[in-house]
């Protein structure tokens, strides 16, 4: 099951939740209970094919539009 990183737009809390992609819109802030969340994209690693090629990592805190 994938994990998603969020920042609460109400209190600023950053947190990670493990849930189905279908349910990620139902996430709530563990600190204040708000559903006004901004999804963060952090630390994506892509590994190459069977040759064990290089990897590509996005810097923590990167945002993709």
TrEMBL record:
SMART domains per record: CxxC_CXXC_SSSS (SM00834)
Top-level division of the source organism's lineage: Bacteria
InterPro entries: Regulatory_FmdB_Zinc_ribbon
Domain Putative regulatory protein FmdB zinc ribbon: residue ranges: 1-42
Pfam families: Zn_ribbon_8
NCBIfam families associated with the record: CxxC_CxxC_SSSS
Protein name: Zinc ribbon domain protein
Native species: Neomoorella glycerini
